[in-house]
Amino acid sequence: MTPEEVVDSAICCGISTIAITDHDTVDGLVIACRYGQNKNIHIIPGIELSSYLSPSEVHILGYFIDIYNISLQKTIQQSRNDRVNRIHAMVEKLHKLHVNINSQEILTLAGQGSPGRMHVAEIIWKHGYCDTIVESFSKYIGDNKPAYVPKKTLTSQQAIELIRDAGGVPVLAHPGLTQRDHIIEDLVKYGLQGIEVYYPSHTPQAVEKYLEIAKRYNLAITGGSDFHGERRTGCPIAKITIPGDLISKLKQRCPSR
């Protein structure tokens, strides 16, 4: 969906505030914020940074960031270059598996956004090599699959510090998916300020667990639908909502305050 469509959809859902947190890019925010002016909605500028803490990725959300921060912009540009190189490497591996797709088709699909595996999966599916986008991952480009190429990322500490430097609040994304609760203590030492407690796949038991962890480490509580458009079914905008007072508490964590 375009940034404008995301804003319109959020308004139709009747919610007052939405955060747009694209992976490793803020390009859509400028459009969304301009379009959302004088409409009955507040848009929190955000980002979701891919980071690495051995042995796997950890996603760090950044809320209330200054999207024009020089360090952030420099990192985003480097990330895009790395992502483009990764697309070419995956396509080369796919060709050896007799999956004949074109890198440029993937980059065109991504447009100005961050090109990633989801775009590769869609092109594989569109060309009939798989019956579903999900199968593209399980058969070809999922972790440790034959066409998988590791992504160059920041360390988790670098991601947290970058968000703080950009005036934002760093939050651990979907801990129930990450399944690495033991690293939270280290992330807090690096400057983590929040944890995504409310998430579509979090069971009531998981919610209770992460509420307790938030209390233990004095972390802000957030929630989100992790909306990815039609590429991820079952998680529409506003599937998860949170009370407004949690947003106020989150904003109070901004370094400038």
Automatic annotation (TrEMBL):
Query: What does the record list as coiled-coil region(s)?
Result: none
Pfam families in the record: PHP
Give the superkingdom in one word.
Bacteria
What InterPro entries does this protein map onto?
Answer: PHP_dom, PHP_domain, Pol/histidinol_Pase-like
Q: Tell me the ranges covered by the PHP domain, including all copies.
A: 2-139
Task: State the Gene Ontology terms under molecular function.
Answer: 5'-3' DNA exonuclease activity; 5'-3' RNA exonuclease activity
Q: What is this protein called?
A: PHP domain-containing protein
Its lineage reads: Bacteria, Pseudomonadati, Planctomycetota, Candidatus Brocadiia, Candidatus Brocadiales
